[in-house]
Amino acid sequence: MTTADVTTAEDTKLARFRVVSLAEGVSFLILLCVAMPLKYAAHMPAPTMVFGMIHGLLFLAYLALAYDVKQAHDWDARRFLVVLIASVIPTGPFWLHKSLKK
User: 83: closest CA among 12, 25, 29?
Assistant: First the structure.
């Protein structure tokens, strides 16, 4: 494997992580701003179950891909911790998406 192949693979992993980060962020906001109010204000629990499952799967993908990118890009523990904290803040994935583009 050449250096160019390794760099391309690392860039692909980072791009995939950025896409999942955005999807996870959107699903989190939909869960918090749409599904939860419907559950408690309109007594409609179905959206919470659906978007909760979608968000859960995207969150697991986020964690797995974050670890994969950490290994590929040799992130230190502090940077990885910031990535993990960003996943539990409602707008964190959007900030992370922008900061990883640099």
Answer: 25
